[in-house]
Amino acid sequence: MKAQDTTDGAAALSFFSGWTYAPAPESSDHIRLQDRYGLFINGAFVPPKSGRHYVTVNPATEGALAEVADAGEKDVDAAVSAAKRAYERTWSRTPAKERAKYIYRIARIIQERAREFAVIESMDGGKPIRESRDVDIPLAANHFFYYAGWADKLPYAFPNRSPRPLGVAGQIIPWNFPLLMAAWKIAPALAAGNTVVLKPAETTPLTALKLAEVIRDSGLPDGVVNILTGFGKTGAALVAHPHVNKIAFTGSTDVGKLIQKAVAGTAKKVTLELGGKAANIVFEDAAIDQAVEGIVNGIFFNQGHVCCAGSRLLVQEGVADAVIRKLKERMETLIVGDPLDKNTDIGAINSKEQLEKISSYIAIGVNEGAELHQSSATLPSKGWFCKPTLFLHTSQSHRLVQEEIFGPVLAVQTFRTVEEAIEKANNIPYGLSAGVWTDKGSKIFNMTSKMRAGVVWANTYNKFDPTSPFGGYKESGFGREGGLHGLLPYVHL
Ligand code: NAI
Ligand code: MG
Question: Is 253 in the same domain as 307?
């Protein structure tokens, strides 16, 4: 970047100064993957009774990384039985402060192996190494550290309520934050004294299998955590298993609805973290350059594969032109490409199916009459990639505004008054998160109290912390993960 003279004499930063970056790929030489993985049941890797395996690929190269097992019903039964046995014979009798030590040990080993985890996460899922290295893996370790602290303090978390564990927790997670979602699920379950059967998403099983190695190395008693790779059918069998006492799910709203139907009439407890379509709201009194950074982070972080992504921009009319001009300039600087390159801002789309879904939404947006703008980035010839994209002149009834795309596609709307912003922000089926950009603290409090969103960020976006609860309203699901609130779904009171 270089300083450029502007007409009023002040120096402005030019993003068009033609800096190019030499490739800076993170090495993957140190990564050791087996050709073929079994299922992690009762403390050991075992071949699947189903006899089936499938290949997990690197979405940036389309190349095979490893074969993983596709767990069938008998495998699910073996894992749930191991978890039930471990709960009854070992874990429910393990003193709380001993439970804490294991969880703490898992956190420490993740930290020690952070580099390996980060590289595998980027290879298997396509996210930029800068994100897996600086966000996913450290946050995953932090979740284990945080909940290790709660394990022997549950009576203080729920004073006079005698918290008791539930038993076996079945946990099903998506592909956008594979290790982090595993940590969000496993850490509070163990802290509260439950045992676990976890199913990672089909396209991103590898860091969960590496986590299984960590769990084995931590000395956690056999069967306390079991990890089953597989597809939706494996997840459905886990949901249906009679000895599962609790289901925790993160993923699409469609599957969330199926799960809720499947557990209706049973004693199973459920939490659902589903989709989102968050409004990032920029007022005229906001610090515009910071807001533009927040918009970029909100929609382009992790290729937009984020349930709380700021996928709708609501910008007040007086600053709309300036914000959109700066946003387009900033989009030009985003580097799309090799997830393992430390310069990369936007990595690979997680799967071919997801890229098709995003492309179909881009076509829908054009058909609905919105104005398409994409950065001029060149995309790698192999792998699944998508240019940073925005749509101008969208309206509230557009599918682009109402539906979750889960890609680097931003729908832009304008507004005039605070009331109009709140109305537009709330008038969708989802309610997971939102962002507000303004100079006025009073406006922030007014907005946060009126928006139906689980998390509202003010003058920042996508900030996560293990101490802070996260979860949705409406079709974004129910239950909270993180913080003290995140223990509640794992205890009887
Ligand atoms: P999905 O909801 O099908 O997959 C999430 C997890 O649920 C995976 O582990 C999958 O194997 C499992 N699953 C699938 N069917 C199941 C069933 N009947 N019973 C139990 N478990 C089941 O999500 P998918 O198909 O990967 O993505 C489709 C769309 O969903 C995305 O385009 C995105 O819009 C949304 N999505 C939202 C996520 C979020 O965090 N809010 C995460 C992933 C996807
Ligand atoms: Mg993969």
Answer: no
Domain count across the chain: 2
Asked if 386 is an active-site residue, the reply is: no
Surrounding residues of ion ligand 2, Cβ less than 5 A: 56, 124, 203
Q: Is residue 14 a part of any domain in this protein?
A: no
- Do 178 and 255 sit in the same domain of this protein? yes
The Å distance, Cα 245 to ligand 1 centre, comes to: 21
Question: Ligand 2 center to residue 125 CA distance, Å?
Answer: 5
Determine which one of 273, 403, 404, 481 is catalytic: 273
Taking the alpha carbons at both ends of the chain, their separation in whole angstroms is 57
Residue 95 burial (CB < 10 Å; 0-12/13-18/19+)? Answer: exposed
Residue 15 located in a structural domain = no
Atom of ligand 1 nearest to the CA of 406: 34
Q: Do residues 147 and 209 share a domain?
A: yes
Q: For residue 431, what is the domain's CATH number?
A: 3.40.309.10
DSSP 41: E
Judgement on whether residues 260 and 294 belong to the same structural domain of the protein = no
Residue pair 212/40 in contact (Cβ under 8 Å)? The answer is: yes
Same domain, 407 and 488: no
Structural domain containing residue 234: 36-274+476-492
Question: CA 45, 166, 155 angle in degrees (round to 5)?
Answer: 115
Pocket test for ligand 1, best of 171, 199, 239, 252 (most atoms within 8 A of CB): 252
Tell which atom from ligand 1 comes closest to the C-alpha of 432: 41
Residue 100 CA to ligand 2 centre (angstroms): 32
**In the numeric block, which tokens belong to residue 70?**
């596709």
Q: Do both 81 and 210 map to the same domain? A: yes
Kindly state whether residues 232 and 343 are assigned to the same domain: no
Residues 253 and 112 in one domain: yes
pLDDT in tens, the chain (493 residues): 344 444 444 455 565 556 678 999 999 999 999 999 999 999 999 999 999 999 999 999 999 999 999 999 999 999 999 999 999 999 999 999 999 999 999 999 999 999 999 999 999 999 999 999 999 999 999 999 999 999 999 999 999 999 999 999 999 999 999 999 999 999 999 999 999 999 999 999 999 999 999 999 999 999 999 999 999 999 999 999 999 999 999 999 999 999 999 999 999 999 999 999 999 999 999 999 999 999 999 999 999 999 999 999 999 999 999 999 999 999 999 999 999 999 999 999 999 999 999 999 999 999 999 999 999 999 999 999 999 999 999 999 999 999 999 999 999 999 999 999 999 999 999 999 999 999 999 999 999 999 999 999 999 999 999 999 999 999 999 999 999 999 999 999 9
Helices (H), 281-351: 288-300, 317-332
Q: How many CB atoms lie within 10 A of CB 200?
A: 31
Residue 5, in any domain of the structure: no
Residue showing tokens 């979750």: 404
Look at residue 1 and tell me if it is in a domain.
no
Ligand found nearest the CA of 308: 1
